[in-house]
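PROTEIN DESIGN WORKSHEET
SECTION A - STRUCTURE
LENGTH: 284
TOKENS:
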């Protein structure tokens, strides 16, 4: 597997940029600070393989240090998002593996969710059509999700004889849509309709299919133009505060905000306000 980032001077935090990253198992495009990742095996509804799991995990891990990429959009080609793990290239081989090999695989899939949550860039999912299994978990790991009326989301692990506890589903989904609704989806593996997903808070908005990716990219461009260091802090605190008491969260936010107040973007915002201008943020 290719190493995506090489520190040139670790003490100064200089890293190889990912704007021109050459993806092997999906498509990657970069414009206006936004990286757009497209799952592109459309003839199979964009399933994941061992190699694509590993490359996705490594890319999101590398994005922790990529200051050129300020926001991310994830989508799928051909009118679908992702059908999950490839039946023939993943599920079939898994049935012949040893327990240690299976555990190595399940930890790798969980690491994809971990790296998506750990990278500081806001991630927006543009989710059309089929969004199932590991694809549903990738969608859940995004910070915001946009869908269409045709989006069908299913955490269908139980349908292949597995627990609904996969890649963090039992922790993340109840926080998103509530314990009872999450329990139903994870026990039954049934499809969550787009309307249900929107009404339950899984989707931030629903759009026409032709407008889905442009709307997601416009949202990402707006975020990329904002105070990206502060956005990273927001993402960190949204993740960490679930395990804190209210008093701990308030103290943690006091410290986080004091750190953000030391950035040049904070000063830029004040100077622009005083000059009756719009601030131009640079992420530092």
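SECTION B - SEQUENCE
RESIDUE ASSIGNMENT:
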């Amino acid at each position: 597997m290719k190493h995506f980032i090489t520190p040139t001077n670790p003490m100064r935090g200089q890293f190889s940029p990912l704007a021109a990253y050459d993806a092997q198992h999906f498509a990657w495009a970069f414009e206006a600070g936004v990286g757009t990742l497209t799952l592109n095996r459309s003839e199979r509804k964009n399933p994941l393989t061992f190699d694509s799991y590993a490359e996705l995990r490594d890319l999101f891990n590398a994005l922790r240090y990529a200051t050129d990429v300020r926001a991310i959009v994830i989508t799928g080609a051909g009118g679908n998002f992702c059908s999950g793990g490839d039946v023939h290239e993943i599920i079939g081989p898994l049935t012949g593996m040893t327990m240690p090999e299976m555990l190595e695989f399940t930890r790798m899939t969980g690491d994809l969710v971990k790296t998506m949550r750990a990278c500081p860039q806001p991630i927006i999912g543009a989710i059309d059509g089929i969004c199932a299994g590991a694809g549903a978990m990738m969608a859940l790991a995004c910070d915001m999700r946009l869908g269409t009326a045709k989006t069908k989301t299913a955490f269908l692990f139980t349908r292949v004889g597995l627990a609904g506890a996969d890649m963090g589903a039992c922790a993340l989904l109840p926080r998103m849509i509530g314990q009872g609704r999450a329990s139903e989806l994870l026990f039954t593996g049934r499809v969550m309709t787009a309307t249900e997903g929107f009404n339950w808070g899984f989707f931030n908005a629903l759009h026409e299919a032709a407008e889905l990716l442009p709307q997601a990219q416009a949202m990402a461009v707006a975020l990329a133009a904002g105070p990206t260091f502060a956005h990273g802090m927001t993402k960190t605190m949204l993740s960490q505060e679930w395990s804190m008491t209210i008093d701990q969260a308030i103290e943690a936010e006091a410290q986080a905000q004091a750190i953000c107040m030391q950035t040049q973007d904070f000063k830029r915002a004040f100077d622009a306000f005083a000059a009756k201008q719009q601030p131009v943020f640079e992420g530092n």
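SECTION C - NOTES
The longest strand covers residues 34-39.
DSSP finds eleven helices and eleven strands in the chain.
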